[in-house]
Amino acid sequence: MHDRPANPISRLYLDFDSFFATAEQHFNPALRGKPVGVVPLDSPHTSCIAISREAKSLGVKSMSSVAEARRVAPDMIFVVARHDVYVRLHNRIVDVINTVVPVAHVRSIDEVVCHLLPSEARDCHALAHQIKSALAAAFSPVLTCSIGMAPSELLAKIGAEAHKPDGFALIRVADLPARLAHIALRDIPGISEGMESRLSAAGIFDFRALWAIAPKQARAIWHSVEGERFWNELHGQHAEREPTQKRMFGHSRMLLADWRTPEKVAMCARQLTMGAARRLRRADMRATKMTLGFKGGGYGRRARSKKDVLRWQWDRSFLPARDDHTFLAALAQGLDAARSAVGFAPRSVSVMLHGLTDDFQITHDLFRTPSAPDQIATTKWEAVSDVMDSLRRQHGPEAITLGVQDDVPGGYLGAKIAFGRIPDQADFGNDPVADADTHFCSL
């Protein structure tokens, strides 16, 4: 009987290439082979959230502004992001992958992880080819992905990201560190700018040096047990983690230049608040704290640095709540504070509901009885919110709202795709956007 290798190939990481841009090319064949930029708003003063491989080959950088992209690629085509379309495509993609190998985890809208059996990992190249062929047959060749296989998820992810676009990488521990010696530290998932500074302070400047550290040293550099988990994953050993718990419900929105007035900022913040509140109720949770935040200043300018961003933040705590009325009342207090304290025109606004709890964790106020006037009011407003949620489920998310339903540019308030979060269908508006209905920018 053959001994099983110490670090067998058991993880597959699949990462789609320029997903939003290739999704648009998939649905609109006229865009294939052309430089495409996906933007969040129909505005000449926004930036690309995704660019096609054709744009990248011309030298357009990720997150370039429309003006910067046009200077590099004058024929660049800009389309407005369609988040509900991308989510539907993601769901169909996962279904296709499942016909070849089960998806164990969805890490983001364009990244999934599969746990491989020894029989599935026996011929890694053939398995990768089978997945890519199934996707090409179900969709179109333009919708490509890169695949990494390794003994751990981290190594598989590194392999996939290092072999974009449409690539494949098989990473064996026996081939390390030489196999990844060319990888820059910042290109390794989990190493941020701040972590790179810590590594530099410890005399670690490249992959070989990172590979050579001891687990306890990694723990000291990371200032937590996460350092040892990272070390284990880097060396091909699975690092088990506790299931993550939801810590907050929040939304943010970049603002067009004519939406940076106090009145319009307030309109946007109201919609963000109610969107977060609806998600909170669907999760059967309550919040005890709200944070309202503004950003402005130099972000997105020539320096392309977040360090000179102007920031303002306001927090308010309250008894565990789940109704729109409580949250909008708290928001009104925050907006009042902002009018006198914020000395800049916000480029973005964010609202977060956190300090989460549920009915089983609530410690009720001994002096607050169900018949107390404030408790009666709270119960009433919770019932109002529940009734409105029920009407939205029956007639669509835009069927009813508390107060005016403001039409904020860019749409998808509370339903934008973020890293690690894929919106539910209930987050989207009443009328879904058709797959083929490309939203070209009117620039």
Summarize the structure.
The protein has 443 residues and is α+β, with helices and mostly antiparallel strands.
Written account of the structure:
The structure is a single chain. With 443 residues, the protein is an alpha+beta fold. Helix content is 35%, strand content 16%. It has 13 helices and twelve strands. Strands 5-6-1-7-8 form a five-stranded mixed β-sheet. It has a four-stranded antiparallel β-sheet with strand order 9-12-10-11, covered by helices on one side. Strands 3-2-4 form a three-stranded mixed β-sheet. Helix 6 links the parallel strand 7 and strand 8. Helix 9 packs across helix 10 and helix 11 runs antiparallel to helix 12. The longest helix has 23 residues. About 1% of the residues have low confidence.
